[in-house]
Amino acid sequence: MTRTVYVNGTYLPETDAKISIFDRGFLMSDAVxxxxxxxxxxxxxxxxxxxxxxxxxxxxxxxxxCTKDELLKIHRKLVVINQIEEGLVYLQVTxxxxxxxxxxxxxxxxxxxxxxxxxxxxxxxxxxxxxxGAKIISIDDIRWGRRDIKTVQLLYPSMGKMMAKKAGCDDxxxxxxxYVTEGTSNNAYFVKGNTIVTRPLSNEILHGITxxxxxxxxxxxxxxxxxxxxxxxxxxxxxxxxxxxxxxFVMPVVEIDGIQLGNGIPGPIAxxxxxxxxxxxxxxxx
Length: 286
Ligand code: PMP
Prior knowledge:
By secondary structure, the chain is an alpha+beta fold. It has 2 domains: 4-120, D-amino Acid Aminotransferase, Chain A, domain 1, CATH 3.30.470; 128-284, D-amino Acid Aminotransferase, subunit A, domain 2 (D-amino Acid Aminotransferase, Chain A, domain 2, Alpha-Beta Barrel). 30% of the residues lie in helices and 29% in strands. It is globular and about 55 Å long. It binds 4'-deoxy-4'-aminopyridoxal-5'-phosphate (PMP). Residues 35, 182, 185-187, 206, 208-211, 244-246 line the site of 4'-deoxy-4'-aminopyridoxal-5'-phosphate (PMP).
């Protein structure tokens, strides 16, 4: 089935969708994005993604392409047209194009570019990868300093995933100044005893929408949370570990740099949090 995508006010087949070669998203990575998951044909935490999108746009002085209500309508329409039961909606806003290349931002009246498309992912919730758990390597974090803004500068995270693949693993956690920042496309956690440890929010990491929800749910379930800097050595000696993201929810981690955590199977806290997160998210999806 040819996907229907959305480009600047128009719904059209993916093969007919066009963006200017002068678009600053293409030339300068001058763009931000959001990925919202879909379960049972409904959007998970749309509100959280819409709020973070607005923050990313504000931080970069990119004009808002449309209202939150309009964005919601577009998301829903694409989910319906493309018959997505389980999957993702990808949204990107760029600073647009004034028909040439220049380091200086285009004039104020240049409209931003808005693109959305869906990705069909049957089995997203009941994922075999989550039942097995992920194997992680650690790599240096050499990204720019504003990781709290969700930009499309994803070359290094993409290289990190490839480094992990080459090492026979699933993903990489990044380390800066001796401390773990986050995964290539997720936030990172380990569990020691009864305590979940994760890095506090700052400009050094993306403020994950799933992180926020999972930490709230963990607190409600009386789990102990310690938001602090941590080293990869601590994580390697942990009882269990996991990551969170909108596209993989809570993903157990069973190995870090070749060192098996616990019994080498997903730990009870990660499994429980995944269950709680999926259940609550389904109940509150719109
Ligand atoms: N950190 C990074 C670097 C990411 O790319 C992502 C997912 N895009 C996350 C964390 C998780 O954020 P969220 O839970 O909002 O998907």
